[in-house]
Write a structure and sequence with these properties.
CNF1/YfiH-like putative cysteine hydrolases
Amino acid sequence: MSEKKNYLTIERLNKIPWLIHGFGLAGFQSQELKAESGLNYFEPVEMSQQHSARVLFIENFPAHKLSGDGLITAASGLLLIIKTADCLPIFLIDLENQAVAAIHCGWRGTAQKIVIKAFELMQQKFNSQARNMLAALGPCIEKNCYEVGNEVLKIFTQAGFPVDLFFRPVRIADKFLLDLRGTNYWLLSRVLGIPEENILQKNLCTFCHPGLISYRRNKEQKERLINFIGIKK
């Protein structure tokens, strides 16, 4: 793994000649993308994120701002943007078809299995195969810091997750620690069948790491981490 001035990268992805990606650090904002070397010719595509399982396929720069929590493209010159502040950003890279996805995974989107919906849409569009897929998981709030209520546990139970693997009770009644990263890793590896060696991670906790942004740590902060992936021209 390597770290640049404004964003983090994963070394294996850096070796893909047609790909650009990054997990933004605190202080790096959307308007700076055009000034960043290697990114300045891309058109950034942002969504109005809804904590949903809505994934959109785009072939051109959209005429208006989109609403959803996942973007897929095989078009060069588009920079797919995911904003986070404790939620988990995930990139999917189809090596055979040179297609990418950027996915916003909060607990609501994870419970709705948004990564599966993104993969299924890539299958529809490109006949993507799990064996040819890379998945990159960025920084998020980690399992020792992410406290949720009993209602979240119930939603994951109803959705068919093995909750004993991902929820740990704490001393406060009806409170649990959720492993957001682990639930998505399970979906990618066990449900979709992406080889574990193809699931790459930037294991940093947004709540603990001072160079990242955490809504749980600082709720009044309006900024978000800018995570991006794109296909070079």
